[in-house]
Amino acid sequence: MIDNGLLVQMLLGALLGLSVYLPLAAGQLSLATPAFYAVGGTLAALLSTRWSALGATATGGFPLPSLLLELALGGLLAGLLALLVGRLVLRLQGIYLAIATIALVEIVRVAILNLPFTGGAVGIFAIPQPFASAAGYLLPALALLALAGWLCQRLDAMPLGRAMAAIRDDELAASCMGIDTTRVKLTAFVLSAVLAGSTGALAAHFLNTWNARQGTFDASITTLAFVILGGSRTWLGPVVGGLLLTALPELLRPVGDVRLVLFGLVILLGPVVAPQGLITPGLLERLGGRGKEAKP
Amino acid sequence: MIEALLQVVLNGAASGGVYALVALGYTLVFSVLGVINFAQGALFSVGGYLTYLLMGGKIGVNGALPGWGLPAGLPFALALLLAAAGSGLIGLLVERLAFAPLRRRNAEPLLALITSLGAGVVLVNLLQLLMGAEGYAFPPSTNALAGLPAVLVIGGARIRTIQLLLLLISAAAVLALSLWLERSKGGRALRAVAEDATTAQLLGIHSEAMVRLAFFLSGALAGLGGGLIGVSVSLPGPYFGIGYGLKGLAVLVLGGLGSVPGAIAGGLLMGLAEALVPSAASGWRDALAFAILFAVLLLRPSGLLGRRTVEKV
Q1: CA dihedral of B14, B18, B20, B24, whole degrees rounded to 10
Q2: Complex ipTM, two decimals?
Q3: pTM for this one?
Q4: Cβ-based contacts of A271 with chain B (< 8 Å)
Q5: What is the CATH number of the domain that holds B200?
Q6: Residue B313: what pLDDT?
Q7: How does pLDDT run across A113-137, given as a tens digit for each residue?
Q8: The domain containing residue A118 runs over which residues?
Q9: Tens digits of per-residue pLDDT, B253-311?
Q10: For chain A, what is the radius of gyration of the CA atoms?
Q11: What pLDDT, on a 0 to 100 scale, did the predictor assign at position B301?
Q12: Is there a contact between B111 and A275 if contact means CB atoms under 8 Å apart?
């Protein structure tokens, strides 16, 4: 039921979940992840189909180092955009920030739809493939996820991560403690964008075609649902949420057209049933505790 | 020249009126609960399809019951009214399922964002199951509304009658709602709850009933907008309300969260701005609302945050 293609999609979902998680860990509800994902994907699609120096072959092959270069460039461009936009929007709080980031997603979507070189509604297709099959994408997706997970884990022990947690708990108190809240929030926002941009670059190759529908308001919601249903208090939550919720519509395929209704019901009822999400710090502690007891 | 301008202004005002309806729907719920009901766009779709069915439209080949429809269509005005009421009732259901359980637990306001979106996903996909993903055009009989010709010539400008009706109906709805909020006992009770739910409760106002009323009215406004747009343009698919829901959100911020006159002025401004986009750049029109929103958020965040309704996430 779960083939390699779906596994790659699940990993990409987990990566996007982490991208939404990072600003949220600093108390900032940003829905901009799909905008940065779209920017990274569009850049990779353009580069690999237009720039012959990257080495796309006539048979649609693509060298691995070029893919890695694109991941870096996709992340870089998204990060630069976030730096630019973040300075402006991070002055906003709560629901205003959420709405401003939705606006960003819509502007990027309309831009990709209308710019002369992004292929309009059809988009960019026949994006060259670095791997012969979907299984090849597992490794880079896993590596990216491992890197992002490691970073999030490290954050807990770093001044940056602690400052983020402090801002999440009480921004005013954090700034009174001498934390440069603007800089911390901006750093989290840019990290989130870099992650989404690189994920987009990988996804563009994996999906083979890329168009404006890749980064929409719908995606803002689904990616936020990854975090909320998975649990927003530890980085494992969004990973688990991303993996499960990406797989869910596919696993529900046997029930036919009702599956999207069921998917909606999960998003509707999830926060009611488990307001903290699936993975909570308490749960991890209990799991860890049991692990220790098991040792003689 | 003047005719062309008049045409643009009337067209802009007509779509602006619909934006104002959607934004007012958000405003009602926001002022009472301090949360945004993201199912608003889906309720807009529901209103469009209900109007279609009530006017005697048949379900298409991809729907659950192909060819099914009411034996006789209702007149436009009645169908629109019933569709708005129907959307209002579904709005009530959304409140029961997506908002009430969280409110009882004093959960984070952020969660209501997710649950209401979930409700929207459910509604839109139920519509898709029932009606199929295809587009619907309204029966041709709607062109001859109230015996008026399809196109009116006013001061040299050619205006589609339906556009004018759209403007008049949304203006009437907005006006009636504002007067009701301002003058009537029920409206005052609603505003009292919006100001301070606990105090209102102590004064003998049934807060929960007022919350439900706000959701009903909010759903009805969205449904009205959906019906109007459906009749004047078409129903391009179950997702068509989502775009209007998003633009309503832009209008909401433009006018200031929780402000009724702000929602009306913001809606008209947005409609006019869009109508002024030259047709050569029409592809960019959908981004205009958000570009304006962005500019407003950045230039005057303090002005918009005037009323302390900011919550900690």
Answers
A1: 160
A2: 0.84
A3: 0.88
A4: 102, 107, 111, 114-115
A5: 1.10.3470
A6: 44
A7: 988 888 888 888 888 888 888 888 9
A8: 4-216
A9: 888 777 788 888 889 888 999 888 887 888 888 888 888 888 887 777 654 444 444 44
A10: 19
A11: 62
A12: yes
**CB contact at 8 A, A184 and A161:** no
> CA-nearest residue of chain B to A261?
B122
Task: Compute CA B271 distance to the chain's CA centroid, rounded to the nearest angstrom.
Answer: 14
**Structural domain boundaries, residue B120:** 2-304
Shortest Cα distance from A197 to chain B (angstroms)?
21
Residue with tokens 């298409």: B60
Contact residues, chain B, for A249 at CB < 8 Å: none
A172 in reach of chain B (CB within 8 A): no
Do B246 and A217 lie within an 8 Å CB cutoff?
yes
Contact: A271, B115; criterion CB under 8 Å: yes
A155 touching B, CB under 8 A? no
B173-207 burial by CB neighbour count: b if 16+ within 10 A, else e?
bbeebbeebeeeeebebbbbbbeebeebeeeebeb
In this prediction, the residues of chain A whose per-residue pLDDT falls under 70 are 1, 289-296
Q: Is B313 within the bounds of a domain?
A: no
B153 sits in which H/E element: strand B151-154
**Number of folded domains in chain B?**
1
Amino acid occupying residue B63? G
Residues 6 or more apart whose CB falls under 8 angstroms from that of B181 comprise B187, B190, B191, B260
Is there a contact between A271 and B283 if contact means CB atoms under 8 Å apart? no
Here the tokens at position A39 are 């920017």
